[in-house]
Design brief:
CATH class: Alpha Beta
Strand content: 5-15%
Distance between the termini: 126 Å
CATH architecture: 3-Layer(aba) Sandwich
Number of domains: 1
Number of strands: 8
Low-confidence stretches: 4-15, 227-233
Mean pLDDT: 86
Strand order of the largest sheet: 1-3-2-4-5-6
Largest sheet: 6 strands, mixed
Shape: globular
Radius of gyration: 28 Å
CATH topology: Rossmann fold
C-alpha cells in the first residue's frame, strides 16, 4: 500500500480520536439534583446531637455548646464532632451545600428554641457565617451575649459572609475592631480525632470565655412552666343580687 495512503489513514484515525476525546471531555457537567429542605425537628436531620439533654444554665451554671455548620467538607462531619466534643456537646445538622445559608439559619433557630436552655455556644464552620444567621442570634440580647464566636475549620479564613458586620453579632467581650472568630485545626491521634493543640485551637474565641460569662453575661432564669387555669368565682354577700 502506498505510504502516502497509510499516512493519510493514520491522520484520519488521529483526527477521529481527537474529536471523540473532545466530545467526552467537553460534555457538560450534570445539573445538581435539588434536595428537599431538612426538618430540623427530626433527629434524622442531624449528623450529631447529644443523646441526653445537657443541663440547663439554671441547673449547673455556664457550659458551652458547639453548633457545627459544615458543608462540602474534606472530612466526614463525624470527625469534626469527635474533635470538637472536647469543648462541649456538639450539635451538627445536615446542611445542603446549595442552600447553606437557609439551612444554617433554620438549624440554628431549632437549636436555640429546643436545645439551648440558656447555655453559651460557639459556631464551628468551614464556610463564612451567612447573613441569615445574624438575625437569629440578634433576636434576643441574652442569646447574643452568650454567643462566643466562630471557630473556623479546614483553613477557612473568612469568618463572615460579605455584608455582615462582625460588630453586629459579636458580643461585648470583643472590643472595637476585634472579630469573634479563630481557626481550629483537628488531627487524628491514636485512632481518635482531636483538636490539634500544636496548631490553631480557637484561642481568641475560647480562652477566657467561661470566666467572662461568669462575670458579665446575664443568666437565663428557669421557666415557670405552664400556669394552671384558675376558675374565678363571683363571691356575693348574703342577700346581694345582680
Amino acid at each position: 500500500m502506498n505510504k502516502f495512503v497509510l499516512m493519510g489513514m493514520g491522520a484520519a484515525v488521529l483526527i477521529a480520536g481527537g474529536v471523540a476525546a473532545w466530545m467526552i471531555t467537553s460534555k457538560p457537567e450534570p445539573e445538581p439534583i435539588p434536595l428537599d429542605p431538612y426538618d430540623y425537628a427530626l433527629v434524622e436531620s442531624w449528623d450529631a446531637k447529644p443523646t441526653e439533654q445537657p443541663a440547663a444554665v439554671w441547673e449547673d451554671g455556664w457550659a458551652i455548646d458547639v453548633v457545627q455548620l459544615t458543608a462540602d467538607t474534606r472530612r466526614n462531619p463525624e470527625d469534626f464532632v469527635a474533635a470538637l466534643s472536647s469543648i462541649g456537646p456538639v450539635y451538627a445538622p445536615k446542611l445542603r451545600a446549595l442552600d447553606f445559608a437557609e439551612d444554617a439559619a433554620s438549624a440554628l433557630q431549632e437549636y436555640l428554641e429546643t436545645s439551648n436552655n440558656g447555655r453559651a455556644f460557639v459556631i464551628a464552620t468551614n464556610q463564612p457565617l451567612p447573613a441569615s444567621a445574624v438575625p437569629v442570634i440578634n433576636a434576643d440580647a441574652m442569646v447574643r451575649a452568650r454567643f462566643g464566636g466562630v471557630l473556623l475549620l479546614e483553613d477557612q479564613e473568612t469568618a463572615f459572609a460579605p455584608g455582615v458586620n462582625p460588630a453586629s453579632v459579636c458580643s461585648d467581650r470583643f472590643g472595637a475592631g476585634e472579630v469573634c472568630a479563630a481557626p481550629v485545626a483537628i488531627k487524628r491521634t491514636d485512632g481518635e480525632w482531636v483538636i490539634d493543640e500544636e496548631g490553631p485551637a480557637g484561642e481568641a474565641v475560647l480562652d477566657g470565655f467561661a470566666e467572662w460569662l461568669d462575670g458579665s453575661a446575664p443568666k437565663l432564669a428557669e421557666p415557670l412552666g405552664d400556669l394552671e387555669e384558675v376558675e374565678i368565682i363571683d363571691i356575693r354577700r348574703p342577700g346581694q343580687t345582680d
